[in-house]
Amino acid sequence: MHEREMHRLPGFRGIGPVKLGSNDPEYTQNDVYGCIIDSLLPLFFDQRLKRGDSIMFKQMEVVGEMAKKSYNQEDNGPRGSKVGNYTFSAVMCWVACDRLAKISQQLEKNDRFEYWASAAKEIKAEILAKAWNSEINSFVSVWGTQSVDSYLLLLSELKFVDANDKQFLGTLARIEKTLIKNRLVCVNPEDTVSLNSATFDYIRALDSVGRKDEARDLFNYIIKNINSNGMFSETIDPETKIHWGNFPQSSASVGLIACAIRLSKTWDNAF
């Protein structure tokens, strides 16, 4: 797991360094707790899948306790950046508690529902107080700053705020002002390449606020950059459209599929 540079190799187009290994284990990323629990949610509600049970729920509560403990603690954020109180990390901890409340209600565990619903309410109140910046009319990526990142595009999809909420619309406007380069979305303003999954997140956000024609137009624009195997890299140069970073990238592939599903015609309108 140690990251090291391979100095003998020039790298793609001569832009190194080529690295082996990964230093990811050195990072603290508290968003993972919500990711785990949210991914298991369908097992308790989707009749097509194997049903979740009380044993699984009890195991998930262990993860939920970690989220409840960590939501207002500094971490490295979803991209392994410098340490701070990241809004996305906090929101994903809220997701963990909110989904556990929904599952406990489904399982008719009233005492656990009250416990997790209360935890989710407490976390959400603190996020709304500390992650909102009225000066720029936007949620911020790190508490106490004026910075935004592309992960804030997911606040509506995660059901933290409604898509038509003024705070989400303000955040969307701020992101459009600071993170878009040649129609593609960067994670941070200082980035020189855009993150493909972020652009797909933006497309779904446009669709959720009713800007469906813009969403479809941007989707058609970005898929022109797909390679001959139908794959996307992690990042792409907004100007040259050259693929950069890890390749292929699963989050970009998932974003592509999610947007295609979201923007497709309904069966009623297909024929």
Describe, in plain words, how this protein is organized in 3D.
- This protein is mostly helical.
- The protein has two domains: 1-130, no CATH class; 135-271, no CATH class.
- It has ten helices and nine strands.
- The strands form four sheets. A three-stranded antiparallel sheet has the order 7-8-9. Strands 1-2 form a two-stranded antiparallel sheet.
- Helix 1 (32-40) runs antiparallel to helix 3 (54-70) and helix 3 (54-70) runs antiparallel to helix 4 (87-106).
- The protein is globular.
User: Structural class of the helices, strands and pairings?
Assistant: mainly alpha
Q: How can the largest sheet be summarized?
A: 3 strands, antiparallel
Computed Rg: 20 Å
Please give the number of β-strands.
9
Dominant shape: globular
Q: What spatial order of strands do you see in the largest sheet?
A: 7-8-9
What percentage of amino acids are in beta strands?
A: 5-15%
For the terminal residues, how far apart are their CA atoms? 53 Å
Mean pLDDT metric: 91
Instruction: Provide the number of structural domains.
Output: 2
Helix content: 40-55%
What is the chain-wise order of helices and strands?
Answer: EEHHHHHEEHEEEHHEEHH
Can you count the helices?
10
Report the uncertain regions: none
